[in-house]
Automatic annotation (TrEMBL):
<dbReference type="InterPro" id="IPR050662">
    <property type="entry name" value="Sec-metab_biosynth-thioest"/>
</dbReference>
<dbReference type="Pfam" id="PF00753">
    <property type="entry name" value="Lactamase_B"/>
</dbReference>
<protein>
    <submittedName>
        <fullName>MBL fold metallo-hydrolase</fullName>
    </submittedName>
</protein>
<feature type="domain" description="Metallo-beta-lactamase">
    <location>
        <begin position="47"/>
        <end position="264"/>
    </location>
</feature>
<dbReference type="InterPro" id="IPR001279">
    <property type="entry name" value="Metallo-B-lactamas"/>
</dbReference>
<dbReference type="InterPro" id="IPR036866">
    <property type="entry name" value="RibonucZ/Hydroxyglut_hydro"/>
</dbReference>
<feature type="region of interest" description="Disordered">
    <location>
        <begin position="1"/>
        <end position="23"/>
    </location>
</feature>
Length: 361
């Protein structure tokens, strides 16, 4: 354990980890808690961290991975290294209802007799929307309507086709959890007692798990060490996801600092340090978006096209369909925050496109 300075909370030091955080294995992060990186079917995001906590009555997982044969094999190997099997899993606490966190929990639970699955209550709308979507003749794609409103009709059509292709290929199981988690609710994660904190933004029901005694935060996708999480990309998106995300970042910043246990990326020593970076990143994007409005851009699509994206500084037209859609929708959320702050005005035109101008005297 380390003490940074007088008045700050005691936090554990970062335990030894491989240089490549995606390297398969089981890596201790806390007493009786290990990190297991499980593979993802994505070229961009290669793995998700699943945390395994041990107690006398069995194991608890924080997040579960994407239900697939590769995930099953990697989890089996990781648990075997700890002397366990999936039969020892009693509980799975899921930070949010994205496929790479939730679907393997549903697969492990099966039709009964498997581990209990817990999920933030705010995810109920999305879980039910996915269930309804799977029985519908045509998949719902709320992002397509949002893109048309953002002035990107061709991208909206491409996203609709993308949604059809994804649904046709999706074999991952989906169902409601056994228990909905409320903000402030205490949960047992192995031998650790953690506090559930609602952190909407990445999804409307995202939660983090605060282990006050150990000085650690199971952060899910809310605070990631190397990338900024997408905002509001879900089946039932909320109206103001960036406003919620910034408020959730400040909520976590107001808690005592902690060891960062993220869902993607390496373990990091300070949640606060990364939260400060994320807040600054979004302030820079807000400032740039306002500058582009002053330069004559009026729609979220036009503003997004004037920016660069990813660490490689790519232009919007160079991104794949899903990533381009996420970029435009993220900027739409930024522009709405500028409206909230009184720095811009918005008008929904008769053509269904939302246009922005800088606020003036």
């Amino acid at each position: 354990m380390t003490q940074d300075s007088p008045g700050q909370a005691t936090r554990p030091a970062v335990p030894d980890q491989p240089d490549d955080w995606t390297e398969p294995g089981a890596y201790r992060v806390l007493d009786d808690v290990w990190r297991l990186p499980l593979p993802l079917p994505s070229a961009g995001l290669r793995a998700v961290n699943v945390y395994v906590a041990r107690a006398e009555d069995g194991l608890t997982l924080v997040d579960s991975g994407w239900a697939s044969p590769d995930t099953v094999a990697a989890l089996d190997r990781g648990l075997a290294a700890l002397g366990h099997t999936t039969a020892d899993i009693r509980r799975i606490v899921v930070t949010h209802a994205h496929h790479d966190h939730y679907t393997h929990a549903i697969a492990l639970r099966g039709n009964g007799g498997g581990p209990e699955v817990l999920l933030g209550r705010g995810e109920e709308l999305t879980v039910d929307a996915v269930l309804a979507d799977r029985s519908a003749a045509e998949p719902a794609m709320p992002q397509a309507a949002m893109l048309r409103r953002a002035g990107a009709p061709r991208l909206a059509e491409a996203m609709t086709e993308f949604g059809r292709a994804i649904r046709a290929a999706d074999r991952a199981p989906w169902d409601r959890p056994d228990q909905w988690l409320d903000d402030g609710q205490a949960v047992a994660v192995g031998a650790h007692r953690v506090e559930t904190r609602a952190t909407p933004g990445h999804t409307r029901g995202h939660v983090v798990l605060r282990d006050e005694a150990a000085g650690a935060l199971f952060a899910g996708d809310h605070v990631l060490p190397h990338i900024t999480p997408s905002i509001g990309y879900e089946r039932a998106p909320e109206p103001a996801p960036l406003r919620s995300y910034l408020a959730s970042l400040r909520l976590v910043r107001d808690l005592p600092d902690a060891l960062l246990l993220p869902a993607h990326g390496p373990v990091a020593r300070s949640v606060h340090t990364r939260v400060d970076e994320l807040l600054e990143h979004h302030e820079q994007r807000l400032s740039l978006a306002l500058d582009l409005l002053h330069s004559g851009a009026t729609t979220a699509h036009q503003v997004a096209a004037g920016m660069s994206w990813t660490r490689r500084e790519r232009k919007l037209d160079d991104l794949e369909t899903e990533h381009a859609a996420l970029a435009v929708l993220e900027i739409a959320a930024h522009l709405d925050v500028l409206v909230d702050r009184g720095l811009a005005r918005a008008d929904d035109g008769t053509d269904g496109v939302r246009r922005y101008v800088p606020a003036g005297p």
